[in-house]
Known about the structure:
By secondary structure, this protein is mainly beta. It has seven domains: 14-317, no CATH class; 326-400, Immunoglobulin-like, CATH 2.60.40; 405-511, Immunoglobulin-like (Sandwich); 518-786, Sandwich (Jelly Rolls); 795-864, Immunoglobulin-like, CATH 2.60.40.10; 878-977, Immunoglobulin-like (Sandwich); 982-1079, Sandwich (Immunoglobulin-like), CATH 2.60.40.10. Strands 1, 3, 5, 8, 9, 10 and 12 form a seven-stranded mixed sheet that branches. Strands 37, 39, 42, 43, 45 and 46 form a six-stranded antiparallel sheet that branches. A five-stranded antiparallel sheet has the order 2-13-20-15-18, with no helix packed on it. β42 and β43 form a beta hairpin.
Amino acid sequence: MEVKYIYNKNLKSYLLFLTLTVVFTLVICGTTSADTYIGGQPLTTVESGTVSGGVYSDSYYGFTGTAAAGSTNDIKTGNVTYNFQPLPSNAEIVSATLYTGVYLGNMQTDYPVDVDITFNGKQLDSQYLSSTYQYLINGGTGLTPVNDHTIRVTSDYFMWYDVTNQIKQDNTVHVNTTNSAFDGRIKLITLIVVYNDGDTDKIAYWINQGQDLSSYLDEEYFGSTTFTGNQPSSMIFENATLKVVHMASTDGVYAFNSNSLPSSTPQGSYSGSNIWDVTSLYNTNDINTLNYHKGSGSGLGGYYKIAFAILTAQYTESTQPYVANFTATPTSGTPPLTVSFTDLSNGASEWAWDFENDGTVDSTRQNPAHTYNTPGIYTVKLTATWPGTITQTIIGYIKVESPDLMVNQVTYNPNGLQQLFVGEDNNIQVTIMNNGNCDAGSFDVNLNLGSYHDTQSISNLAAGRETTVIFSSFTPLANGTVTVNVTVDSNNEIAESNENNNLFSESKTICNNGFKGKRYTNGSDINTQKTFEGNYDLVYSNGSSAFVNWGWNSYNATWTSQQLPIPSTATVTQALLYQAYKFDKTPGGSPIWTVNFNGGTITPDKCYTDRKGYGYDYYYGLYVYDVTSLFNTSSNTLSIIPGTGNSQDLYGSYLVVVYHDPSTSSKKIYINEECDMLYSAPGYDVSNSEATAYANFNGVKTSNLINAKVINILGSASEMNRSKFFFNNTEYSGFWNDYNPISNIGFSSYEVTNILQNGSNIAQLQNYNGSFYTIVALGSILVTEYETSIPVADFTATPVNGEVSLTVQFTDQSANATGWNWDFDNNGTTDSNDQNPTYTYNTAGTYTVKLSATGPGGTDQEVKTDYILVKKSDKPDLLPTDLRVTSYPYVNYSLVTVNITNNGIKQSGLFDVTLYDNGTQFGQQYTYGLKPNQTKTLYFLWKPSSTGNHHLQVVLDKNNTVKESNENNNSLNKQINNQPDLTPIELNTVHYTMTNYCYATVKVTNNGENLTGFFDVTLYDNGTQVGQQKIYGLPTGTTKTIYFFWKTNDNGTHNIQAVIDKNSTIPETNETNNTIQKQL
């Protein structure tokens, strides 16, 4: 019989999530448009014809509720294997189509999802679905095209596949959705098969398909679909059946040819079907119409979507005088296969044979023979002629057998993330399919990835079957892209029907698995960045810091002295600020922010990062800031301001402060830093041992060891029994007890004194049987403490007596000392911290000397009373005692006054007094016979070469003509600026309201080092000048009061301003302090 086949490959689809509450009443309506608010795809006929067998359909109904028969998986999951009801054993397939619906969870938003579909062991599809759906009322088209076999309508992707050549009596489908951004569950799987069964039945059929919906947002829309044509002529109508498959949680209401049909409870929570006997309602000579509408429920009950309407009508022959038929032998074999055909038609006069069903007449003989040279399954068609013609077609009648080997699928690490990873033995699973109709013997499968080659043998593969081989020795050492080539029957041992499909080739990325410790991915361990040895200790704290999610606009934290207690005897050696983050989505791959600490802007000294390396691949990181110069022992503040485009989660900030304290014990501190993500899970191809970060401590000394502890710093280590710590292979409990839920940072301290090793030591921070959170190893600090001896202070000196200007060399004789404080005259002031200092005594007397020696074990003092004897000298002792400058700006000269004194016990001879300006001599006088204790005043004229700062120096007896008891006190220095500095220091105002007169006094002072010339004092009232006076000759350090009177007609507020030297006539040391103002 002739079969009319219509198949539409231009179907489209959209996505939707809807929550509605509506009440509807069905009205039979003939509209063919979609819901005018949301849109949709009205049902149209995609296939129709006449067969002897019928139309088979079976479905998996998704989510919850009663599972469809044959489901072997949890119906809530996105991983479904469904065994369809068996086809009739005598079915001769005309067409077979597999449909799959995937639910996204939202009607318009793009929630991407990966979907893989395998049918009877062969992969039909593997695609990444990502699109949006726009309501029709908002300008959408009613459906969103994705590709030539996928559409989206509202919240559902709908996919279809022609599986005619893969259909069997027993059929199995496997649908797996992964990497869903929101939902990704499987709403519906439907298999529709049209078949003949070899009898004389005539069954007309129509398959109408779409994604039409009815919602409370468009009460006026009533969907309909029609079934037209294909009704056999000269036949007797027997019965008709209508089946509807829908994708909604609540059934709709229906009418067939204007007659209501009963609704039912859906088989699944979001899909179901109805079957009706419509024999009495069927129009044999007219169009048949199905109408549908949403139910009367609220919420999701006010929403309905229909996917299929399948109508079949059975007819019987009224009379049939002629029959076209034939047989053949043999019907199977290997090529070349010669087949003899025998005509069984009753009384035909002409025959047209098409042995390959390609539309070409191959023979017109009644009983011909035909040789098949190419493997394949052939449909044979005979058209027999009487007065009319009848055609008999036997589908798949001749089978020319030959194997056809090909790679059906390559899966990388199939039990994990299906990625290739650096530094591990990757399992590469290759699925081989024999698509031929003849068994294959032994053959090889070769795998090639760059320089890696491996071959495995397969002993036999039956026709239509598949097998898998696993290559498990590919261990790449670096990430990057590699070409994967798999060749089936690599030695051409098997003669196949298709020799051109034996090679599978694709590019694959080799990833660093960031969930492993960096040691396993060619990264860095948590290594030592800083060490401190001596009388040191440290404190650390999160302060008030807290974890914040992405989208933060500002971030602040504080630390108090209680949180970071620094002893009063200590000096801060280094203060380090740490800021960790995760899920950084900032363009460019690193944060954009401004960090301020105690008011100062800081930049990181070091940055550590880690990333997963695949999938949702966002950076984790740790920034380290040296804030030593800004650190305050009483309190500290931090603020972070995000820049444009910045996006990440912030862990709480923490400070680590190292200080030196003479009173503390001797220690060595190792500070190790890094950022290492850790997540142990077989599904992520990470074992417990691989989810380990290593901290290395080298050069450790164990002699005189008192105590040793390790402080580990981790982020997100909150889960109980999901982490472990090892030190030199000794296991400790994990980090959860020290986790801070506010900052998401924890400091876990472990005592390791008894297992510390001389030399190298290794700490291991492990995520164990990871459950939910990725922990982040940020640092590890080792503190070793040692025994120390108490210092014993002692010293010697030479000489211990002599005349004034006696220089003494002191020699330390202390034991166990590392620091020295010398007080050479026992006055409580430290004169030197050198170990072996020298000191000059310029005054006669007897001196007690004290040495305080400090060591790791403490402090000791040695006091030697009356140890140094300094005698008076019989020489003069000349020294300058005063240097003053008086400036005369109008003649550009200054008077320099110098006082000199003889502190010795003998009169001096002739000596010079020399003056220098910035190192240049500008004056010299000679003096003779200055008696003991006599003071003399000398005057010098000085004309400065420039304004500004001048370094003046007076030197007595510069050539050392006079022998003195102290030759080290003959000079005196003074820094001056020979400019005035005019400053208004007081403004007083009075307003006499009776007369509208105002009165003001302005006090002006000269804070500079020079007399002024003329300058003006100007007064303003609300910006208008109301007075000005000229002032002359304000000396250094003097103040003058200026008086102003003026009249005003305004009784309101007056802003009074006094400006000194408004035209800057007088050069001053400070030109910014010449204004004062007050409100009157």
